[in-house]
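Slide 14.
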Amino acid sequence: MKLDIIREQLPDYAKDLKLNLSSLLNDQTLTEQQRWGAFLATALASRNAALIAAVSADAAEKLTPEAAKATKAAASIMAMNNIYYRFVHLASHPDYAKLPAQLRMNIIGNPGVERVDFELWSLAVSAINGCGKCIDAHDQVLRKAGVSHQAIQQAVRIASVVHAIAATLDGEESLAA
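Slide 15: predicted structure.
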């Protein structure tokens, strides 16, 4: 497993990240597709090349090609939506919320996997990108579909640990330069 290599590269001060990663990889709260999709989408959102490569290699053994494509699509579309809707949410002028986004988002309506899985990955990426409006929207869809609070929390736990690992690896690389 390539993530084992990443785990070993983490410095001693990041022992909690190592332990949390192991726990999340073995947790059964999410389906295997949901879990590995969350890992891949959040690794992409976290933008660390080594982490993306490791998660992608491991996820390739767990996800169908369709699920891998949908996971990447969730990270991609949320990279756009999180910026736009965070702006709409944070802008002090209320007229922005009344304007149509005029951004293509067709993948959300037809992601190629179960809608719940795509929404879960989109929520996890939105947590990394800090878009409260998107978090609320995806959370509402997931809860309406009967997804448990524990499953939603698990996707965000994955996002938080993956993002922290990426930040730690980036920081260590900068210190070494």
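Speaker note: The domain at 2-176 is CATH 1.20.1290.10 (AhpD-like).
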